[in-house]
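User: I'm writing a tutorial on reading structure tokens. Could you give me a worked example: one chain, its sequence, then its tokens, then a sentence or two explaining what the tokens reveal?
Assistant: Sure. Here is the example chain.
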Amino acid sequence: MPASISLKERDRLRRLAFRQRELAESPSSRARIAMWRALNDNGSLHPPVAVETWTFDPEFLPPEVFECESDVARTIEYSFLSHIRREEYISDDQPVPDAFYTSWDISIDRFGLPSEITVAADRQGRTIAYHQEPIIHDLPTELSKLRPAAVSVDKTATLERKAWLESLFGDILPVKIAGPPLEIHLTSHLISLLGMEYLYTSIYDYPEEIEVLMRYITDNERHILRFYEENDLLRPDDLYRHIATSYLSSDNAASADNSA
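And here are its predicted structure tokens:
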């Protein structure tokens, strides 16, 4: 993380931090948090609505809304604007976070084998479409090549970045370290390894190998989660992480300490 950004960018980020705090402390945002907690505690009949703006980022966050020029400042600006503009223009039921979250520097080599993704640009130059090349082409002979996931974390770099962010706007908006995402997509990893077409034929041709492969994928995810736990990386991200557009807030989570 660079030690400094331009004064213009610093002022821009501080103004955005103040605006996000202002929105997070608003009665409407607090009411939404209460609604999600009631819903997740089986006490609400109101169906919340959440719009996933990342699915249309180029339209929702066009280039003209950005003022920062450096990559690092622009990344932070993106985080602020994604929350602020959603509240100002859409006003769905997602609460505005009352902190700025940064993530642990985690590296995962999930299978021990190289993978390749081919992307295709549309007429606007956006690389949305992609094709993941299969990692395994001959399941019976290549199954033994798979290795347990290699996981590492750079806590020093993470804490240095957190301190740098706090020096920018920590007096306005708290900076917290978010825990790693805990979504587990077993079949997605299966597709990554075999590709969709080969997966379909392998279910018929190699059912026993598919069972072994699924057991390997499951054990691999357990291994990654154990690493998170053993290295104290888990955090109560009840207002930051969401799964299937459902925020994880509950009365139990509300009392957890998220001061990291």
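What the tokens reveal: Residues 253-259 have pLDDT under 50 and may be disordered. The chain is about 45% helix and 10% strand.
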